[in-house]
Design goal:
The chain has 14 helices and 15 strands. It has a 7-stranded mixed β-sheet, with helices on both faces. It has a 4-stranded mixed β-sheet with strand order 1-2-3-13. A 4-stranded antiparallel β-sheet has the order 11-12-15-14, covered by helices on one side. With 456 residues, the chain is of the alpha/beta class. Bound molecules: pyridoxal-5'-phosphate.
């Protein structure tokens, strides 16, 4: 891949720890954070970063980290991919902001046209916003304006962002919703196809995907009956812990939504842009969405979210009812056009990532009592840590310690999950096999080390 070229500018080679993080300069930064930044922002990995390129990030104390978090699933093509930086710079040299509500511009129109080509199904019209959260908000406004129905259905283990609408949809109480109520009414939470912890205590395939049937029952019973506007769902849950529904799940859900005139809003903020091995996660099932939400990898770090939907749905909001000063900023749109080209080039490499990671994670599941489940698709794989395979008792402290142990040795990884006991792997899609293996070796060393300390 392009790794050599991309790490050349800053001579970033790693991972390399020269002083245990946080080093002295980073400690000073963390003290400033405490003084000047709201308590509501929690720092996951305590160091101050100053340069990032390709799969590497360097902190102010000179440590170089291998990045398996990529800005929480954003830099799928590595940090500062040259073609992406060039596209943004070219747009910066032309103009930075006009506001599409004043006059349209090429980057916005090109991106809208491109989205109509790459999105699954017949999604032809778009609007661009500043974030995934804002895109979800807009999708729901559009869906309501289309079918005038009241109820929105979403999943208990979902995550859809940080605005009031988004946290109303999101299932996890702490830290996302707790203390912020009252939330938006007419949201009904239902169980996801979380097979490892099946809410119905059944097993696939003999269950016949009964969890979908329970959603049908909810939609077809009072008070929702005949009044369900939309279902918002991630094809594979991200923050929920990389939960991938079984084959047939989304096909079955599509039929339920069709039977009840429900708009399917496919949240691809985390699963999109190549992460699952296809451009969009839902393409692993035969289930065309009515609207698709994009974000994160859409523009490789420039803030952008998108809603792309069916003509008849996107046509309903009256003129001037949607918009925003910065949504679809020209530099972000120019970056997104480069992101689409780069993602298409990087996609084949997800096969290697899946092969290498899956083999390794499956081996760990065999070998270690505390690896309860291994799951995910493409380059979106994770594992759930438990006290014992039989008890399935979540071990969030152990999971956090594994993350911190990796960090101290030069590897950035993320945790996730309803019980904060999932390690999720977000390597850049352009990574090569040697570096991927190096990161997995580091993770295994950290896991074994922490398991010993925890007496697991
Ligand atoms: C599935 C999903 N939807 C929506 C969002 C919110 O996107 P943003 O953080 O850009 O507002 C996220 C963010 O993590 C996400 O993972």
């Amino acid at each position: 891949m392009e790794l050599g070229r991309m790490v050349k500018k800053y001579n970033l080679k790693g991972p390399k720890i020269v002083v245990e993080p946080p080093g002295p300069k980073s400690q000073a930064a963390l003290a400033r954070k405490e003084k000047f930044v709201t308590n509501g922002i929690r720092i996951g990995l305590p160091t101050e970063l100053d340069v990032a390129e390709g799969p590497f990030m360097r902190d102010v104390d000179g440590n170089v980290f291998l990045d398996f978090t990529v800005g929480i699933g954003v830099h799928n093509c590595g940090h500062r991919a040259p073609e992406f930086v060039k596209a943004c710079q070219e747009q910066l040299d032309k103009f930075i902001h006009i506001c599409v509500m004043v006059s349209p511009y090429k980057a916005y129109l090109d991106l809208a046209e491109e989205m109509s080509k790459i999105c699954p199904g017949n999604l032809t019209k778009s609007i661009f916003l500043n974030s995934g959260s804002e895109a979800i908000e807009n999708a729901l406004k559009i869906a309501r304006s289309y079918n005038k129905k009241k109820w929105i259905v979403s999943y208990k283990t979902s995550f859809h962002g940080r605005t009031f609408m988004d946290i109303s949809l999101t299932g996890k109480e702490k830290p996302y919703r707790d203390g912020f109520g009252p939330l938006v009414p007419y949201v009904q939470h239902v169980d996801y196809a979380y097979c490892y912890r099946c809410p119905l205590k059944l097993e696939f395939p003999s269950c016949g995907i009964a969890c979908a049937d329970t959603i049908r029952t909810v939609m077809e019973s009072k008070p929702l009956e005949g009044d369900v506007c939309a279902l918002v769902g991630e094809p594979i849950q991200g923050e929920g812990g990389f939960i991938d529904p079984p084959p047939g799940y989304w096909e079955k859900m599509r039929k339920i939504m069709d039977d009840n005139g429900v708009v399917f809003i496919d949240d691809e903020v985390q699963t999109g842009f190549g992460r699952t091995g296809k451009m969009f996660g839902i393409e692993h099932w035969k289930c065309d969405p009515d609207m698709l939400i994009s974000g994160k990898g859409l523009s490789l770090g420039m803030p952008l979210g998108g809603v792309t939907g069916k003509e008849k749905i996107m046509a309903t909001p009256p003129p001037a009812s949607l918009g925003g000063t910065f949504g679809g900023n020209p530099v972000c749109c120019a970056g997104a056009l480069a992101s689409i080209r780069l993602t298409q080039k990087a996609l084949p490499n997800t096969k290697m990532i899946n092969r290498v990671e899956k083999k390794r994670l499956d081996e760990w599941k065999q070998k270690y009592e505390w690896v309860g489940d291994v799951r995910g698709l493409g380059a979106m794989l994770g594992m759930e840590f438990v006290k014992t395979k039989k008890s399935k008792e979540p071990v969030p402290d152990f999971t956090r310690n594994v993350q911190l142990n990796c960090f101290k040795h030069g590897l950035y990884i993320l945790t996730a999950g309803q019980y904060n006991n999932v390690i999720r792997l977000h390597p850049p899609l352009i990574i090569d096999e040697a570096l991927l293996t190096k990161g997995l070796d580091m993770l295994e060393t950290a896991m074994v080390d922490e398991a010993k300390k925890a007496g697991l």
